[in-house]
Amino acid sequence: MEIHKFSEKLYQVFLSHKTKETVEKYVLWIAVASFLIHLIVIGFVNFDIISLEEPSKLLNNPIAAIYTPFSFILIYEVYLLIYYLPKSTSIYISKQYEIITLIVIRRLFKDLSDLSLSADWFSINNDLQFTYDLIASIILFYLIYLFQSQRIKSSLYAAHDSIMKPSITKFIGAKKKIATSLVPILFVIAIYSLLNWSFGLFQQSPNGSVSFKNINNIFFEQFFNILIISDVTILLFSFFHTDEFHKVIRNSGFIISTILIRISFSVSGIINNVLIVTAILFGLLILIIHNKFEKQLALEKANDNHDELV
User: Fold this and answer.
1) What CA–CA distance (Å, rounded) separates 44 from 108?
2) What angle do CA 301, 305, 308 make, to 5 degrees?
3) Distance between CA atoms of 254 and 247, rounded to whole angstroms?
4) Burial of 303 by CB count in 10 Å (0-12 exposed, 13-18 middle, 19+ buried)?
5) Which residues are CB-neighbours of 224 under 8 A, at least 6 positions away?
6) Are 160 and 64 in contact (CB under 8 A)?
7) pLDDT in tens, 263-310
8) In this structure, which of 154, 228, 231, 260 has its CB flanked by the most CB atoms within 10 Å?
């Protein structure tokens, strides 16, 4: 009982609505400050106040300064993902989709500062990646809209069954514990990534070029590994709550979607974009089919109740 109380207290400290508002306020201020600092550093580099043999692409163009505040906003989005984990599986998954879409958008800001405006657009790797990301971001934005629409339908079906069963209470409790444990992990990985990133701005690789090949993967590659583990754990706990086929398939499908997103960090170019789009499209189709099951079950239940009244 004492362990349960301590766990609930930690949950309130890390993931209460008040804490969320506080974190949001501080992250916004940090994002604004980081944007100004990045702009100042770019100015120092351009005016040779800071001398670097081969500055990072993030220190060449003021447009690239948008990349830094976007990174802090993305970390806040990860916090929101953890915040919604105990509350709604579908919102939790939609947050994953929003995060990977924002990563693609952030990459666009980085690539914008390094575009080569020439007739050889489709033969230049950076310009091609910019084109892929531009198209992918539109597709992802629309897929998330469709997913959100299906999520609302799913919540309407769930509203018909308003009785809070003991198994549901235990399942939510398990998700709260998992979410609470993810917060310090998020904090540690974020601090480590920030320090690594800051040193990387001024650190050059042995061949003389700035080592920023996988800058978009920093923090998120490691965190999505942890998400996969937590998702599998939640899936196992869900069997104590329900063994309904369509819910098991939905939860399993969402894990596959998360794994596809994680794999996307391991590749680049158009394959990266294809994997991300495929991951969200797969999750969307899984939710659409799940909702059809829910609708059918709701109709059957309504018919059974009607027969009992007759």
Assistant:
1) 24
2) 140
3) 11
4) exposed
5) 258, 261, 262, 265
6) no
7) 998 888 899 999 999 999 999 999 999 999 988 887 877 776 655 555
8) 231
Q: Encoding tokens for residue 154?
A: 């799913």
SS3 (DSSP) at 251? helix
Handedness of CA 19, 22, 28, 29 (dihedral sign): negative
Q: Which residues share a beta bridge with 210?
A: 204
Whole-prediction pTM value? 0.85
User: What's the CA gap between 84 and 110, in Å, rounded?
Assistant: 29
**Tokens standing for 168?**
């549901």
**Hey, is 204 helix, strand or coil?**
strand
Phi first, then psi: give them for residue 210, nearest 5 degrees. -70, 135
Query: Do the Cβ atoms of 220 and 236 come closer than 8 Å?
Result: no
**Encoding tokens for residue 288?**
């659409």
Q: Over the stretch 12-69, which tens digit does the pLDDT of each residue have? A: 999 999 999 999 999 999 999 999 998 998 888 888 777 766 566 667 778 878 888 8
Query: For tokens 């996307």, what's the residue?
Result: 264
Beta-bridge mates of residue 204: 210
